[in-house]
Here is the input.
Amino acid sequence: MTFTLARRTQRMNSSAIREILKVTERPGVLSMAGGLPAPESFPIEAIQRACDQVLSTQGSAALQYATTEGLLPLREWIARRLSQGAWQVDASQVLITTGSQQGLDLVGKVMLDEGSPVLVEQPTYLGALQAFAPYEPVFTPWASDAEGPLPQDLSKAEPARLAYLVPSFQNPSGHCIPDARRREIALQAQQSNTPVVEDNPYGELWFDAPPPPPLATHAPEQVIYLGSFSKVLAPGLRVGYIVTPSGDHPGTRALRAKLLQAKQAADLHTPALNQRIIVQLLDSGFDLDGHLDTVRARYRAQRDAMATALARHLPGGCTWHLPQGGMFFWVTCSDGIDTLQRLPLAVESGVAYVPGASFYAGNAPGQANTLRLSFVTLSPSEIDEAVARLARCLA
Here is the structure.
């Protein structure tokens, strides 16, 4: 049988990270590739108690179909936690998604046409490129300096359909945009009437000080905000959310309605059981902020271990930025080193990473001498050994 595939499938590609993860299942491979939270950080006992309570008291409702918008108590909790300053979030703005990755897909489906210009950082989150690509946009590299994307790029001659960025502890670079630059980007987005998609899965994973307030606090009517419980509780729950822009303008109402319709068409609703487990957990006295303090302390120690290992082992010519939060180091190697070509050698040597070229889009070529390292799933001693193995492959 011959099947005729839709043209958009030509723009669908496997995630380089997911493909690498298959290889790292080999015994003895120390993986710094996947952006996976540390499984030791999952509050398993608390989630088990919440699950038991939900099934014993709300079992029928938890196992039944649910509303597409998501469970109202969960949406209200998200709205309360996010509201600050000029950004006062109402539960009506919140749409629960099956992970924030689905949020990206829904935004792409609703907002992008063939040829739509989309501003993206260089490098940027690979999953966003994957989610948007089937809708056939034109990715435009967003010029940046040491403080992040340049606000003036939002006022180019050809207006962008949307601008996408991860302001806090970006995947893959680990950089955090300072508050002044966030304000400048928000102001320029308002002046150029450019919607901004603010993806914030890592904002709670700060080490020494929290990141600046989200862009949405400075331009609440301009920003589509994405959040997730994957990094703060557990990714297996697959619960994320979209916060649509503030206001009751016709365009904002239309955006909310179409996102809801796109969600209905995709999966009807995010699993009601998982949503109720989270609500039960949050309402049962579980100390989420205390839990996050524990996660931050663990990740900070692992971050410090990797910084020490990089300085000890990597050959001359390698540079990196010390992340103040998140899960990643971004390493630039000497010119002439192609990290994609050296990956098979690294895996044979018992270590894995993600080549940096995967995180570039548009007309700008990927920087072949870059790579991303995740530090949160290995112990400090494993980190040292993994970086030592990596250094031998790069030398």
Remarks:
- The first helix runs from residue 16 to 23.
- The chain has two domains: 10-43+289-394, 67-269.
- The radius of gyration is 21 Å.
- Residues 10-43+289-394 form a domain with the Aspartate Aminotransferase, domain 1 fold (CATH 3.90.1150.10).
